[in-house]
Amino acid sequence: MNPRQRQALRRLERALPAGELRWDQATREQHARDKWFAERLPDAVALPRSTASVARLLAAAHAHRIPVTARGAGHGYVGGCVPVRGGVVLSLARMNRIREIHAGDFVAVVQAGVITQRLQAAVEARGLFYPPDPASRGDSTVGGNIVTNAGGPRCLKYGVTRDYLLGSEVVLADGTVLELGSRTHKNKTGFDLNRLFVGSEGLLGVVTEATLKLLPLPPERACLAVGLSSSADAARAIESIFAAGFLPCALEVADAFTLAAAQQRTGSRRLAGCQAHIIVEIDGQRESVRRELRLLERAVRRVPVRFVERGLGAAACEQLWQLRREFSYALRDTGLTKLNEDVAVPRSRLEDLFAFAARLQRRHGLQVACFGHAGDGNIHVNVMVDFTQPGARARSEAALDDLFRQVLAWGGVITGEHGVGLAKRRWWPQAVSPSVQALHRKLKRALDPRGILNPGKFV
Ligand SMILES: Cc1cc2nc3c(=O)[nH]c(=O)nc-3n(C[C@H](O)[C@H](O)[C@H](O)COP(=O)(O)OP(=O)(O)OC[C@H]3O[C@@H](n4cnc5c(N)ncnc54)[C@H](O)[C@@H]3O)c2cc1C
Description:
Uridine Diphospho-n-acetylenolpyruvylglucosamine Reductase, domain 3, 22% strand
């Protein structure tokens, strides 16, 4: 930041409520990175409590061309909130009020900094349901979820964050405050501008508030956890579930490497010899869930299985999900660095993806662990790297090049849920056509003509 820009921020600081702009080293360090591998110290950190403060900050930043990088909880996986050009990190963490939960309208109105799981607990206490369930929901914010269009296991049946955004308050780069959408569950008034900001990764505007759609909370849930002898059997079991007419709320798969690491961590004897594992969850009314669980098991058993575990009710289901939650930690226990890619492939390519991952290991001499959301083809392909080994970086990059090239050739995408950020910037030109890249640039210029919002990222 040059001296003129610094002076402008000092003037702004005096106009904002006390403590909303911080310059100290400790605060700047806390806002320099997310959960990926890049970092850069911002010059200052804004911690506004109101939309008015956000608007003031952006108007000043726009006038003086100061870079502003919005930040939710910093639990992104792609370096999205890293302020690569310095300037101000604009944290929404203190805008964390749940303004309203309306059982009659089935909506919640929240500020962007509300932690997703806190919202979920609050609505569930009222018999309501906010389904999007990224694994990071205990830490990530609703605003962060909106601009990364976050998803999770339940999105197979219920859809991703964008499907729940009815209305939003967004501050544009020049400080203009927009009210978009409505609190009705249907709305066709003009363009769907809410969705312009969904997945926009902080490049087009700052989301300060959201009106979210809620559903009735299903009274019952049930799960099956299934051990299998091969990933081909897992793919066939998944096909059999859909062929029987089920749309489970979650359908997760894990490969042999992941299971071996999980077995090491948990000491589970059941997993011995398993080469693949799936978890299927259904929900609905008590009587129908009981009956459907039996039918679901019958569909799964059309394929040879090593074991089937059943869970009926929230507590029993959580026990089965516990294993799934251990996967990330188990991979971390290997001591290798996990490059967690979140590709999505057309559903029929699941088995091909697992076979391709096995070939990647052989070709590049690296371990590859796959697990994730089988039902929607969104698989975490984790390239496991020992960066102390000579040539490891080059081999891991070559492996990722191969992976993304193949996924794109199948009609898949380089990111199903984490976003592009810094991590996938290298593959952006392959992932979208030149004309689509140009349209991104045109939209960016229209909304942020001075390029102050999250500069240095993929647009
Ligand atoms: C352990 C772990 C598990 C994860 N599991 C999942 C998963 O299952 N599914 C999934 O989809 N993702 C997952 N993620 C990725 C990540 O948690 C999500 O992308 C999440 O939505 C990030 O939210 P955040 O509040 O931490 O955002 P941040 O990391 O702070 O920011 C993410 C991006 O959004 C921008 N931004 C943040 N808030 C705003 C705002 N209010 N207005 C404008 N721009 C903003 C930032 O500039 C940045 O580009 C996981 C991450 C971790 C670390």
